[in-house]
Design goal:
Protein name: MerR family transcriptional regulator
Mean pLDDT: 96
Organism: Brevibacillus brevis (Bacillus brevis)
Number of strands: 2
Keywords: Coiled coil, DNA-binding
Radius of gyration: 21 Å
Order of helices and strands: HHEEHHH
Number of domains: 1
CATH topology: Multidrug-efflux Transporter Regulator, Chain: A, Domain 2
Helix content: over 70%
Distance between the termini: 64 Å
Length: 121
């Protein structure tokens, strides 16, 4: 896949894909005989995983650490698992915060519904 195709498939801009490669989040992107990037299905899967990490609030610095560990091979499996477990805990805490916030919003909606009903009487 070309960089434009990858951008379209991932929703990332061409600039972001180049930036991710520059900072080491994307390693080993192949180049064709003209020097153009040629992304593989494995690159696409990796980018989708990075997007999941990002959408769940993982900082780019932690994503970079994970990527660095990944490029070092199986010797870093325990470190990567630990990093993901810590992130998992953070995501669960975010979910709990969102549930509490949602409950308050629902209470406020109910409050306004009751007010509307009182005003209609």
């Amino acid at each position: 896949m070309t960089i434009q195709q990858m951008a379209k498939m991932t929703g990332l801009s061409v600039h972001t894909l180049r930036y991710y490669e520059k900072i080491g989040l994307l390693n080993g992107v192949e180049r064709n005989e003209h020097g153009y990037r040629q992304y593989s299905e494995a690159d696409l899967a990796w980018i989708h995983f990075l997007l999941r990490l990002r959408s769940t609030g993982m900082p780019v610095s932690d994503m970079k650490l994970f990527s660095d560990l990944r490029s070092q091979g199986n010797a870093t499996v325990a470190n990567r698992r630990e990093l993901l477990e810590n992130h998992h805990k953070n995501v669960l805490a975010q979910i709990q915060d969102l549930k509490e916030s949602l409950r308050e919003v629902e209470e406020k909606i109910d409050y306004y519904k009751r007010l509307e009903e009182q005003n209609e009487q």
